[in-house]
Fold each of these.
Amino acid sequence: MNRADRSPLAARPNDDSDANELHDMQLPRLVAPNTLPFRRTIRRTELRQIVPLADTTIYDMERRGEFPRRFNLTARCVVWDLTEVEAWLDARRQASDSSQLKRAPSPDVRQRKRRPVKAKPAS
């Protein structure tokens, strides 16, 4: 005897009234509807994989308001909102594509104390 033969629906004759009963039957809800949207948070190790910046750079940018702020889940657990980090990355990409980001100036190699620049021979 297979599993389909043991079900209570298989024992009853198949007619349209059975199909309508099954269609109108309300199934129990396993998960309560969530009124808040799902927000994913990430810890420092995941942030480092997404944003290749040093911790001190991230903290300095947070302090200046240039990077999404972290928040404490507990006294020892610090997280960032993933949607904010992804939005920051998208904004940086758009700013980079439109040349709005200022690039760091090239260092003046003539001011080095070690390995001074050799004077070019006069041709």
Amino acid sequence: MSTRPTPEQLAAVEAFAVGGHVVLQAGAGSGKTTTLVQMARRKRRPGQYLVFNRSIADGARRRFPRHVGADTAHSLAYQAVGWRYAERLAMPCMSSAKLAAVLGPTGTRWPKCCRCSGPGVESP
């Protein structure tokens, strides 16, 4: 199903086509992805669509032309360096309580922060 682009979408696509900087700021379901797809089809230059989860990335790969990648931040990080740690990443997870017990006290002074209710606490 194809819908007509709004005047705002047309303006964004045209600005992108002539090399302008474009920022799309709009609410959920307002057509940001549709606008980006229109931009990608209009100007065939490499691009990257960054999303928050795999299902959105999978759907975007079906919508965007081949010259635009669609990935999560985690998948890009894994492609860049994560593969070096594949063995570690496959290991069982350790709870934060167990990790704290393994690492033990370090003598680190923890600074007071906006989320803390009191002054900094010093480890023994």
